[in-house]
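cron nightly-structures :: item 1 of 1
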Amino acid sequence: MDDGKMGHAPMIKILIMGLPGSGKTTLASNLSTLLSPNCLWLNADTIREQYNDWDFSYEGRLRQSKRMHDLAAESDTQYVVCDFVAPIKEMRDIFNPDITIWMDTIAEGRFADTNKLFEDPTGDLLRITTMDSEYWSKYIVKNLLAK
């Protein structure tokens, strides 16, 4: 029986994370444009606005990660690009990306509480240390997503 997804490549969830002001949204915008029309872009601030949820407590941050995970899971696109701070490992684990990109371009963000919470990610990831979203978006498509 054809469920409408037969023959489609599995979805790839891409998390672009880092401190506020590190260039996440700019990279996500460029990357999602390159992957269009087979891409859903989830921006954390836009999603918070849609749900009117500006709770940045520990519980609120975990809820946002779950929300982003669920929205990605509902997508029928080939790629989901998600940009959000995700300062703690538990948040990143909840979202469960296929590819993690760490925007490690600034030493501190503009919010002291987020700076204090931020845990450097470990494991298999792309660590970006320069703000050149045009270069990096093309690099990601060519080197991480090429089949």
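cron nightly-structures :: done
The chain is about 40% helix and 15% strand.
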